[in-house]
Automatic annotation (TrEMBL):
Pfam families: Glyco_hydro_43. Keywords: Glycosidase, Hydrolase. It comes from the Bacteria. GO terms for molecular function: hydrolase activity. This is Glycoside hydrolase family 43 protein.
Amino acid sequence: MALKNDEVQIRDPFIVPVESEGRYYMFGSTDKNIWGKGSGFDYYVSSDLQLWDGPFPAFRPDESFFADNNFWAPEVYAYGGRWYMFATFRRRDNHLLGTAVLAADALTGPFCLVSEGPVTPRDWSSLDGTLFIDDENRPWMVFCHEWQQIGDGEVCAMRLSDDLKEPAGEPVTLFSASQAPWTTPIQSPKFPRPDNYVTDGPFLHRMPNGELIMLWASFIDGAYAQGVARSATGLVTGPWVQEPEALFRSDGGHGMIFRTFEGKLMLTIHTPNKTPLERPIFLELRADEGKLSVAGK
């Protein structure tokens, strides 16, 4: 039986529209307790973004897989004749988070690891890698250097090899979370520093006017929120200019942008930011004179 949006527990929703089928495929963090042992990733399928068939398995690790905890934020892209999944895992050998690359011949999987573990730096706690292809057709991964390791979380970019299996350059820091006017520190008994700022879920999108923007998430007074930054040069390396206000601040974030088959520009995020209550929502976006806003707000 099909599930409504409020019946689908998922974090970090990522939509792949397949126009030839008239269907949307939704991937995300789908373990019931995504803070614990990881079992893999599932996907759901819909024709209207309201009723979903699934879950169906997209990835299941074998015993040799480099991680067994915290399977997070899969993003799936068509590239070079195959489908590639960028996803975050907590590695066994040093217990740090890292983004690895998986691939499959079909959108529905099964996905298998193609990188040698995470492609993010081994001694960094890194998460939420997203793929960006620049104007010279070069692949980049944009990802977060986690606040739990460095205090003021960062968004970084790194060139990848053409086969996406390994780095092709050193990471470059694009900005820190505290640089955005709308973010506030997050208080955590486990991490008691007063200047902890979160970066989560970067996603790049080329606007209709040609501007390059980035969605990313942080917190406002303890509530999860979705922000926007703009590249002043149109390049992934920036510099990046932060919007003064959050795009969405009602305890939701880790968003991505896609177009419906009718041409509407849509934002999907999960809300609330609390397990097991997180659900996907879909918000129509307006792009007026280059400024992004949620329709009707």
